[in-house]
Amino acid sequence: MCAIGADGEQRLKALIPETDVYVENFRVGTLDRLGFGPQELADGHKGIVYLSCNPNSMTGPWAKRGGFDMEGLSCSGFTIAEGGGGVPRFPPTLVMNDYIAGYLGAVGVIAALRRRAKEGGSYHVRVSLTRAAMWYASLGRFPDTKFDLSGPNNRLISPEILVAQTPYGEVRRLGPQVKLSRTPGRWRTPLVAVRGADTVNWA
Fold this sequence. Notes:
It contains seven helices and five strands. The chain is an alpha/beta fold. The chain has a three-stranded parallel sheet, with helices on both faces. A hairpin with a 2-residue loop joins strand 4 and strand 5. Helix 6 crosses helix 7 (129-138). It starts with 5 loop residues before the first helix and ends in a 29-residue tail after the last strand.
């Protein structure tokens, strides 16, 4: 939620006391100026887990630069490595860091909640798009993009498709690749209406 404006600020402040996890992706320092920085929320609400996601880093000369997924790929050198021969190229997925940073942020939040349950305290989880690209690249690369699909372990399988009704009609998407027996894949909020359509309150 954007806290700019007196009405939005008051509504956000009213939600904070019941908040376990606060997620933001503003430029570094923006929410501190608005009174919703990690230290201020931790001082006024013990036990909060605060997740920050930004393009580059929380410190350093690029900390306050804005950016998005593909800039993180470019700044990390990923696109040069992906393209080869000095010709930059985005990965086949085009967007990559949004997902990776989101997953890493979620893991960090879960770890912080577990630690809070044992030790108490408030926690600040920090992830960045560029660092996510650097981590992903560090896992290694396939030496060749031509794969032998004739073997039983390399055959493509039919993907699971999730179907959901949204304000914009029926939407289909790929299901998760990892199967868990007790927590099967689902899509609780596939698409929401344009920003500002939801009421600002706890359900």
